[in-house]
Amino acid sequence: MVIILKNTAAPQQVGELIRWLEDSCKVKTNLVEGVHSTIIGLIGDTLHMDTEAIMANDCVESVQRVQEPYKNANRKFHPDDTVIDVCSRKIGGNKTQIIAGPCSVESEKQLMETAIACKQAGATMLRGGAFKPRTSPYSFQGLREEGIKLLLKAKKETGLPVVTEIMSLAHMDMFTDVDVIQVGARNMQNFELLKELGRCDKPVLLKRGLSSTLEELLMSAEYIMSEGNSKVILCERGIRTFETMTRNTLDISAVALLKQRSHLPVVVDPSHATGLVKLVEPMSLAAVAAGCDGLEIEVHCDPKSALSDGAQQLTPKAFCGVMEKIKALAGFMGKDVDEA
């Protein structure tokens, strides 16, 4: 349920209304002061609440029932876009962030060379897998804790905030200095992990599962937010369909739908979505045109020698060319790409 307050509502009136709702109606309240309106979102059993009793308060403009099962992530609860600050980089609003780097951290030389090239091309954050979930148990699984140390060293060298994936609750202590914790597609419904991330004060980049609906993605975001962490970034990374010419099928419509249904920022990963380096540029531009708040692009200093997903990783030179087109299109769409 959402209570929309009058523009003339006094702070004392709002405070009294919130106390009455929490004490008498036994619901949690979430006060959101937007640019155009102020609302109170109610979380709990609101089925039998008397809307007329709520409307009787002088400060109340209207009352709306929210049918969707996700509440905190719902735009009805938070009409204005959420903007998440990551080391002074803003994800959401009128900014387009570019998260770039290798699929996996393989060595100090490989990471440093790629990170410096990404920054020079205009990337605003550094991605890299320290822990790598792989379909085969015999494939390269990442450098684990050593990989995180190398990412933090690259951050010190370049100034780029670090985005990397967590795979287990047991690894939480290793992510203390990581700027954005990524939850991969395979863990989108690892609810115990999501709840733990909801108790930490870090941005979480939540990737859509391979066969998950948008409502399921938003419900996973709800798990994080219900524990108190509102810094959730949604990521469309392609879904599994009957098509075999690409690794996955990039659901561009998801960007527009998520922006309509939720206030959370939306990032697109064109690299995992297609698995083909020649499709990264057109899919990146399509995502920007659809209104995404950022892109997560894989870049490797020597893709032919990559230990994972070499076929979808851009060379630094190719990434530089893609960045120029992204900046031009973002500007046309009324957004700016932050300068690193």
Could you explain the architecture of this structure?
The chain is α/β, with parallel strands linked by helices. The chain is 34% helix and 19% strand. The chain has helices spanning 11-24, 51-55, 108-121, 145-158, 191-198, 214-226, 252-261, 270-274, 277-290, 316-332; strands at 2-5, 28-33, 38-43, 60-64, 84-86, 89-91, 95-101, 125-127, 162-166, 180-183, 204-207, 232-236, 266-268, 294-298, 336-337. The strands form three sheets. Strands 7-8-9-10-11-12-13-14 form an eight-stranded parallel barrel, surrounded by five helices. α7 (252-261) links the parallel β12 (232-236) and β13 (266-268). The protein is elongated and about 70 Å long.
List the helices and strands and how they pair.
Elements: E1 2-5, H1 11-24, E2 28-33, E3 38-43, H2 51-55, E4 60-64, E5 84-86, E6 89-91, E7 95-101, H3 108-121, E8 125-127, H4 145-158, E9 162-166, E10 180-183, H5 191-198, E11 204-207, H6 214-226, E12 232-236, H7 252-261, E13 266-268, H8 270-274, H9 277-290, E14 294-298, H10 316-332, E15 336-337
Parallel strand pairs: 7-8, 7-14, 7-15, 8-9, 9-10, 10-11, 11-12, 12-13, 13-14
Antiparallel strand pairs: 1-3, 1-4, 2-3, 5-6
Helix pairs in contact: 3-4, 3-10, 5-6, 9-10
